Amino acid sequence: MEDLTQLAGRQWLASQADSHTFKDCKQIVAIAAGICNRCGSKVKAKLPSGKYYCQACIGIGRVVEGDYLIRNVQEELFSPVKNGGLTWQGKLTEQQEKISTALVKNFHNRKNTLVHAVTGAGKTEMLFQLIAECMRQGQRACIATPRIDVVNELFPRFQAAFQEIAIGKYHGREFREPGLEQLTICTTHQLMKFYQAFDLLVIDEVDSFPYVGNAQLHFAAKYAVKKSGMRAYLTATPTADLLAEAKAGKLEILKLKRRFHGGLLPVPKEKLFFRQFLKKERINPHLLKEVKKVIQAGHPLLLFVPRVEEIPAYLKALAQDAELKQLKVKGVHAADPQRIEKVQEFRERKLDILVTTTILERGVTFKNVWVIIVAADDAIYTTASLVQIAGRVGRAKDDPDGLVLYCYHRYTQNIRDAILQIKEMNR
Amino acid sequence: MNICLLCQQVFIPELSWIELFSLKKAGQHKFCTQCMKKFEKLTKIRCRYCDKNLSTEGVCRDCQNWTKIYPHKLLKHHALYRYNDSFHDLMVNYKRYGDYALREVLQALCAKELAKLKFDCYIPIPTSPEHQATRQFDTISAIFAELVPLTPLLKKYEKSGAQGEKNKQERLLSPQAFYLETDQHLADNISQGRILLLDDIYTTGRTLYHARDKVLEEFPDAQIESFSICR
């Protein structure tokens, strides 16, 4: 009999043809009453055989009617770790400390919590005590987030802070199946591979795509955590349904209005444009002027454009300008195979301008960066997106301010609300 | 209201004037305009033989290489779209993950054009039995069976491997993997006819040339051309 300990807390698919039985595992039908038991979706599509299959979670292996889900629920896998394995020596601000303590208390009481903290408040550091407490008790924790970039950003920070804990890092581009680590950092999609695995589940950037409004991922998040476990959500821009849950008393809400360095959030500047931003491969001269201002001020620039298809046009247009020609400019988008490398290059200041879509709207920190949003009035930018993008600026203690520029043709409700929200948090 | 098969979002189909006044149902629209736009049609200037997009009229390098093996007998191929990232994603979902419902997207992309090509007989490129067993459907037949009457003459040997898992060099060097399964009745019908070989993607042409070789062995007088959704 093979050892299934490595697969503790996991669930996986076994086809009907597979007569293998797994010791001590629960075996349930994968599709029952027209519902996929892995992601909770209604199954609608059929194979030629007439069997239903689930389209919603097909990316991690097709669930077909008649297949089984094998669930390996195990208790007490880890032993308590002294000090929770926390090797971090830093100090929290008074406000961070308050939140951190409240989180630990809520973990003891298993009270689900929403942390609403402004961008750059130092949310990651506020999690350290909470994670340490979970490790100290010999329990298992997971930090999940919808974004691959955020996973890549969080992982080294936790590695540095918890040098005695083995941390697993998993997302769709790691091409690895989750293993048995006491602390897992992964995308919310990976949660579908777990079943009642965690005593503590933290979801960072809980209001972001694709988690927000995605019933399958919510389903996965619900079942990845033990019945006796606690969930904590983190965001700078909570959605209405989270706030409603808080109001209904199902979630405790903890608010932090100040950045860790005590400075205010940069309030975005707005600029009205009459002509198109890009016409026949030429950038609007007024927009170009704004780009040059940033470069002259010696700051790296994140240039947000609404659509992937526009990136090459902007790159080409920027390369044609006499002044900007010698700069190092690249473009990045979700499906870019070199996405991770490019983001790293920009972080290391090897690039001057990074033209990007909303994939870099949150969860990433670039020192001294300024941002310009082209077509901030585009429907793709929600209020939360606009607030998050503005939140990329002024995150360092020695450089707490900077330029955020919303370029628009039409002043939208979202732009208005975003600026109001930022001002409200600054009050 | 329709739900887009690709992005799973609700969309309102854009109806042409003809559709508006005809009795056709709007339910025929399988995906939204945003998703539709992601698929690029091949532009006008193409290789005379394989429909590859070129900068100037003529014969592409791939086909020039094929003339070395098939002098004066290049395969006339018909293709519709460029194999771009969106197509790649679609094919990954359809073939690797086995999302059978996506055949309807592929059908919608090629139905009109395929109907314009009048042939006597349509032969789908087969998939290997192992792949068919895991997917529980035949990727090519599933697309075309609902569009044209198929004559599934070609079969693929077991364990012959998939072209999609190889690089260009390996693809070109891959050996003949097809065999014919025919009977007298079929043979009488198609021996003189015009045959169209059907595939999803044309990459090097190796597969389709192999398929043609096999069919010609049995039906040396047949006129054979080929069709794929992308090039």
UniProtKB/TrEMBL annotation, chain A:
<keyword id="KW-0238">DNA-binding</keyword>
<feature type="domain" description="Helicase ATP-binding">
    <location>
        <begin position="104"/>
        <end position="256"/>
    </location>
</feature>
<dbReference type="GO" id="GO:0006270">
    <property type="term" value="P:DNA replication initiation"/>
</dbReference>
<dbReference type="GO" id="GO:0043138">
    <property type="term" value="F:3'-5' DNA helicase activity"/>
</dbReference>
<protein>
    <submittedName>
        <fullName>DEAD/DEAH box helicase</fullName>
    </submittedName>
</protein>
<dbReference type="InterPro" id="IPR001650">
    <property type="entry name" value="Helicase_C-like"/>
</dbReference>
<dbReference type="Pfam" id="PF00271">
    <property type="entry name" value="Helicase_C"/>
</dbReference>
<dbReference type="GO" id="GO:0016787">
    <property type="term" value="F:hydrolase activity"/>
</dbReference>
<dbReference type="InterPro" id="IPR027417">
    <property type="entry name" value="P-loop_NTPase"/>
</dbReference>
<keyword id="KW-0067">ATP-binding</keyword>
<dbReference type="GO" id="GO:0006310">
    <property type="term" value="P:DNA recombination"/>
</dbReference>
<dbReference type="GO" id="GO:0003677">
    <property type="term" value="F:DNA binding"/>
</dbReference>
<dbReference type="InterPro" id="IPR006935">
    <property type="entry name" value="Helicase/UvrB_N"/>
</dbReference>
<feature type="domain" description="Helicase C-terminal">
    <location>
        <begin position="287"/>
        <end position="427"/>
    </location>
</feature>
<dbReference type="GO" id="GO:0005524">
    <property type="term" value="F:ATP binding"/>
</dbReference>
<dbReference type="GO" id="GO:0006302">
    <property type="term" value="P:double-strand break repair"/>
</dbReference>
<keyword id="KW-0347">Helicase</keyword>
<keyword id="KW-0378">Hydrolase</keyword>
<dbReference type="Pfam" id="PF04851">
    <property type="entry name" value="ResIII"/>
</dbReference>
<dbReference type="InterPro" id="IPR014001">
    <property type="entry name" value="Helicase_ATP-bd"/>
</dbReference>
<keyword id="KW-0547">Nucleotide-binding</keyword>
From TrEMBL, chain B:
<dbReference type="InterPro" id="IPR029057">
    <property type="entry name" value="PRTase-like"/>
</dbReference>
<dbReference type="InterPro" id="IPR000836">
    <property type="entry name" value="PRTase_dom"/>
</dbReference>
<protein>
    <submittedName>
        <fullName>ComF family protein</fullName>
    </submittedName>
</protein>
<dbReference type="InterPro" id="IPR051910">
    <property type="entry name" value="ComF/GntX_DNA_util-trans"/>
</dbReference>
<comment type="similarity">
    <text>Belongs to the ComF/GntX family.</text>
</comment>
